[in-house]
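Throughout this chapter, every protein is written as a compact record of paired, labelled lines. An example of such a record is reproduced below:
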Amino acid sequence: MQWTLVIPVKPLARAKSRLSDTADDGLRPGLALAFAQDTVAAALACPAVRDVAVVTNDALAGRELAALGAAIVADEPRGGLNAALAHAATVARTSRPASPVAALNADLPALRPLELSRVLDTAAEFPRAFLADAAEIGTTLLAAASGRELRPAFGTDSRARHRASGAAELRLDAVDSVRQDVDTGADLRAALALGVGPRTAAAAARLLIPGQ
């Protein structure tokens, strides 16, 4: 089974504000773009992924991610993350109505294609399923089988919210790269320890990170 992934990218100028302890205002947009580029590149290299649709209204992010092979979907609802994901999933299914769809965070710079493939292959066993983040509070991936609505509930305590929505929680070992999203300096250090993609490595090299 091959999946369509929808990946949300917010305007780069407003991205990753919680990294202010590690990266200043001038560096955070480039860092956020690097995260998204490495995430999209790894996703497109995953054998379980047919295509990737990035939902964004950021012109630079759209150009750079399209250059990697992603389709770009405009955030027409402009109603926040969950509305954007639901819209992108609907758009993706206009051309492939039978395709399973999964929402994936854009800040997974250590993402490994084979680990993502394992998560998606396991998700295929359920009508809807999700993977909790490394902190076990949020969600990094939400999957919906063919014919099922995605019903995203990202945001505060999304692990509990997705579980309450009826989605099955995927309890897998050795998929750390799919869990390790980056919101804080500590998250970035954890991702660097796992081994990030080349764009994030180059962007992070401009930062002063203890233990890097």
User: Anything to note?
Assistant: The mean pLDDT is 95. The chain has one domain: 3-204. The two ends are 38 Å apart (CA to CA). The first strand starts at residue 3 and ends at 8.
